[in-house]
Design brief:
single chain, 118 residues, mainly alpha, 2 helices
């Protein structure tokens, strides 16, 4: 099954699993009927294991893709927060300057008030 935006470091393993299943089923053994029955049981067990591997690989790929998308979202959120921090730093600098200006004006007014009453 093809997945949109598959970011897995390993390609889709289903075709390889299908190939192994096919190879196992094509093996030709010339044994007694009892041996052939044993071969069929082992072939069936191998197929079950390969299907479990296929399912596990699929789940792992889905998990990995979900984690990748979550990481991308976290990076976008981090970038937005960093922009907000820069804006807030700029606002703080502005208010510090405004405070300095107001402090200077206050000092001047206090000085003028002190000497205006004399």
């Amino acid at each position: 099954m093809a997945r949109n935006r598959d970011n897995a470091p390993v390609g889709n393993t289903c075709p390889k699993i299908d190939e192994v299943i096919s190879l196992i089923s094509q093996m030709d053994y010339e044994f007694t009927d009892e041996d052939n029955e044993d071969k069929k049981q082992k072939e069936s067990a191998a197929n079950v294991l390969l299907e479990q591997i296929r399912s596990d690989n699929s789940q792992l790929r889905e998990w990995g893709n979900a984690e990748y998308l979550r990481a991308e979202e976290n990076e976008r959120e981090r970038d937005d927060l960093l922009k907000q921090v820069e804006t807030l730093k700029s606002d703080i600098d502005y208010y510090i300057k405004q405070n300095g200006i107001l402090s200077d004006e206050n000092s001047e007014l206090q000085y003028n008030a002190k000497y205006a009453n004399q």
